[in-house]
Amino acid sequence: MSGGGRGWDGRFPGFDVLDQAPHWDRVTADVVLARTDTPTAVKFFTEPEEACARALLNLLTGQDGHDGELAVPVLEMVDSRLAAGETDGWRYDDMPEDGQAWRNTLVLLDADARQLSGTAFADAPPADQARLVQAVQDLASGNWHGLPAAHVWSLWTRYACTAFYAHPFAWAEIGFPGPAYPRGYKNTGVGKLEPFEVGDAHPSEDPVREGA
Amino acid sequence: MNVRARNESAWLLPNDGTRTNHRLRRDMRQFADSDEIDLVIVGCGAGGSVMLQRLARAGWRVAALDAGPFWDPDTDWVSDEAGSHHLYWTDPRVIAGSDPVPMGSNNSGRGVGGSMVHYAGYTPRFHPSDFATNTVDGVGADWPLSYPELRPYYEQIEQELPVAGERWPWGDPHGYPYRPHPVGGNGEVFLRGAGKLGITAKVGPVAIVNGRFGNRPHCIYRGFCLQGCKVNAKASPLITHVPDALAHGAEVRPDAMVTQIAVDSRTGRALGVHYVTGGRERFQRARMVAVAGYSIETPRLLLNSASSRFPEGLCNDFDQVGRYLMVQGAPQTAGRFDAEVRMYKAPPPEVSTEAFYETDAAKDYKRGFSIQTVSPLPITWAEHVAAQGHWGPALREYMSDYVHWSCLGGLCEFLPRPENRVTLAGEKDSYGLPVARFSYSQCDNDRALARAAQSVMEGILHAAGADEVITIQRYAHLVGGARMAEDEQHGVVDRYGRSFAVPNLYITDGSVLPTQGSANPALTIMAVAARTAHHLAAGLS
Questions:
Q1: N- or C-end of chain A: fewer Cβ atoms within 10 A?
Q2: Which of A33, A59, A90 to probe the B interface (max B CBs under 10 A)?
Q3: What is the ipTM of this complex?
């Protein structure tokens, strides 16, 4: 996919969540701004796992290398959660605990890639990567190498989305201003903006309606 | 009696812009493990905190042990979704059944204040019909108590939280102590769509201060209710009951995980609780034990407290512990508008309708559902979008449309079923205790309710002008698992929360509820606990 024509580009011109950081409470600012620091070294994933997980997570979050400095380090964010054992507080009875489930599914994804492309998943052509991932989603309630595909899909997308949409860069492209304490909001209601919010430049261009 | 005279919590908080009365905590009474206190409470959430406050006021020597921290909203909580992960109970749990229920952020709190720290803030009452669904509708169960017996406690708690909302026309019609909040974009959409269809919808009821209450300030419409209220505007027991309890000599012992209830094998009476704090195993003696660990941890603790007298788990002679655990079906339907709704501005809980709450003879299902605004923040919204099957560029594109969406949630009265239950898994937690395994499966009536709620929400959003609607199937809340009943063959506790098996063991949390209605359970959990506390306090005096 090319960098120019993406449907999420340029909807909120000039809007940068970080502009408001001086107005956030200190504790929140520390937590949020730390996400924009250089990512810490990978601790949980082994090297081959890391390569596979990075390719998978970037694929799931639409990060194709065209974002330049605005890339969200989803791999590192997921890795640090898994290293700290920060699960969602449950697992399906037909899946291993999350850390082990990640390791197992990455091995399986690499095996699928070797069969389709003759390489590890990370080195497979982008079209093959997309096909392999789509195949897991398409299994729906079926079985993927002995695991329930829907539960694998849930694991991957849950961790990917939680990491990606925790990042201020991701908030900027959806028009969400992030932390709101202690200032709160004064102009609530349909069509109302705060001085620091930026309206959608293309409000009637529902990207989904176009794509449908 | 005015509220302050019976619960001074809101006046015991600071009024200088900080949120915690540190002096009250520093000067807190501390009992020794060897003291035989009057009551030890396991869990300091909705049920446990009300017990603590009421019985401290009655002069009891009472302590509440909580597995999590004693929160300070200023330093422990953030205005951020991912940064609030520590508010949830995330110790391992296994989910199973044909329709497994995710735990954690959705329904499980941790620390003083419990799940009310991160609940949305809706505090509707149950309807009178909820207490006799078996007799009236032929489904569910009858409670061993009736609505009028609970009403005075509903009124007390509504004043203590306090609740804001319009006059409530459903169930037992009633008013609220505080006027309704102004609504944001999402509430506006709901009211407009419902109005066009002739569906009555009302603003409230929310336990969020509208105006000042004691030293608690007005809501600032920040939208982060589910991440813990840094303002002290949204009610949780941390600020509505714990301060008054401490001022009356109660102890809150945070970071203390209760691992087992000890019962004397000769007398059959509870002796106290084993707990772990700071890596050390300890034992608190008590004349009476109240368990308030909510619908997963309460049954788990009973099952983990097996002994020679109770080989299948404490209070489990009739295989009732852990059963009839309920969750509400919570389909979440969103609609897309060209105008910007920006649903993150204003509290997620704004507007509700209970017009579909009771059985409608014209429908092919029993009981009903309510509909409320929900307003997910980006991570939760991404879950909604990803559930449509989008990933990669499609996900990003869809997500970039966030400000145009309005989002409603249904609460469907899924029925209590014996096979929906907590048992012990083979796996152990960091304390070496078997973790809970929660198996959940829906029945046909449940599925019919979820479909009906989705269809009404789609109708409301279309009527308001939405050009597209999308739905994700979710669950909300937990109740049951140690229900009250007329006798020991049908439940774990009696109408006052006293266990049938152990005369000085009470359960005072959401697990005692025999049905769940279509109402958010926090207010009812508190009211039932207040009734138990009143009964106990009266008995001692």
A1: C
A2: A90
A3: 0.96
Task: From residue B308, give the alpha-carbon distance in Å to each of B258, B286, B393.
Answer: 20, 21, 60
Q: Decide if B204 contacts B180 (C-beta within 8 A).
A: yes
The backbone region for B331, taken as left when phi is positive above 0, alpha when psi lies in -120 to 50, beta otherwise, is: beta
Residue A150 · residue A96 · CB < 8 Å: no
pLDDT at A202: 86
**B147 token code pair:** 């609505």
Residues of A in contact with B96 (CB under 8 A): 92-93
**What beta strand segments (E) does B359-513 contain?**
369-373, 405-412, 421-428, 434-439, 468-472, 475-479, 505-507
CB neighbour class for B163 (10 Å; exposed up to 12, middle 13-18, buried from 19): buried
Q: What is the DSSP letter of A122?
A: G
* A54: contact with B, CB 8 A cutoff: no
Task: Give the model's pLDDT for residue A64.
Answer: 76
Alpha helices (H) in B60-215, listed in sequence order: 73-76, 133-137, 147-160, 185-197
Give the distance from residue A173's alpha carbon to the nearest chain B alpha carbon, in angstroms: 6
pTM of the shown model: 0.97
Residues of B in contact with A89 (CB under 8 A): 88-93, 103-105, 108
Is the pLDDT score of A210 beyond 80?
Answer: no
B310 has pLDDT over 80: yes
DSSP 8-state class, residue B211: S
Residue B529: which of B158, B52, B60 has the closest Cα?
A: B52
What pLDDT is recorded for position B541?
A: 36
Express each pLDDT in B339-398 by its tens digit. 999 999 999 999 999 999 999 999 999 999 999 999 999 999 999 999 999 999 999 999
Mutate to test the interface with A, among B78, B297, B405 (most CBs of A within 10 A): B78
- Chain B residues whose CB is inside 8 A of the A28 CB are 78-80, 83
